[in-house]
Hints:
The protein is α/β, with parallel strands linked by helices. It is built from 16 helices and nine strands. It has a six-stranded parallel β-sheet with strand order 1-9-6-4-2-3, with helices on both faces.
Amino acid sequence: MLPKYYEFQNPVKINAGMDALETIPYELKQMNASRPIIITDKGISNAGLLKTLLNAFDDSELTIGVVFDETPPDSSLSTVNRIAELYRKHKCDSIIALGGGSPMDTAKGVNILISEGTGDIRQFMGADRLKKQMQPFIAIPTTSGTGSEVTLVAVIYDEENQVKMPFTSARLLPNVAVLDPRMTIGLPARITAATGMDALTHAIEAYTCLQKNPMSDAFATAAIKLVGKYLLAVVKNGKDKEARFAMANASTMAGIAFSNSMVGAVHAIGHACGAVAHIHHGTAMAILLPYVMEFNKDILGDLYGELLLPLAGESVYLSTDRVEHAGKFIKTVKSINTELNKLCNMPVCLSDAGLKKEQFKQVAETALNDGAMLPNPKELNKNDILNILEKAF
Length: 393
Ligand SMILES: [Fe+2]
């Protein structure tokens, strides 16, 4: 059933392909920018990806204002403040984020600080508080999972008050997202697997949550089709450029989908597993996804059934009885997890991922208060979450 009303927005230009990085000088010029700051982390620079990006500027007249490669694994307020100082000191006029979720969120925080001309971003916490024109901003993902390059959210940790601050605004969206398979080609198999399952979860939850709409559905199903065809291939052979490129596209499309609908209970419980037991986000998504779908199946069975074709392909779809489509879909997700476990040891149960039974209560209570719980079409109480944790343990 179509929603009575919905909004959909994705103004991010997507430059995608083997030499997509080389388009960045042109894109900056188009935005009247000539001195970008590059925000990344040590892992990225040590892996040689920063060098590949810098080489893309060789034939241009542009100058890199400054490179900051000390972004911590969780974006923090002090880092944002430190980078903004560098930005001003080196007279930069644009921002390039190179990395996974943390450099992206950090760059969004820096953009708020600089563009709003403030010394403290805390006053802009929450939804739609940004009013000024933002600095030109280019995002280059180095994993295929978060979709941060097309989402309007940034989460920044305030160390002083020990809170995670969410910022939501369409102004946080990058001007350009650059998907260049050279940026993910060296990603270890285990991270490739977990981040790929995060992308799959974004797409499935976007397609089944209360705020789904025809536009987000289109991006979600296209993303699922690519994950179904390429995730196992790219984990088997990380050098497979076609598969890397396909997963980069899948991740970005899944990001556009959930950014314009929402996610659901898999994310709510997964966020809680991360907060309580520091379980990697993508790993938590992979483990929880089939069990949450089993819980949701009596309400979402038809929608899960529709996703069997894009995920498993035509022959599986046609050889499965219609009433079995939803069950087969969940089984297919489980079998992908089993394969990923064989290929790269990705945990398939919460005990192997580091959760302790005595942490269940805290995870359940934290998950109940997570914003991602609200758009899940079937309401969960504490016992429901405990049951899911028990089954996934
Ligand atoms: Fe996620």
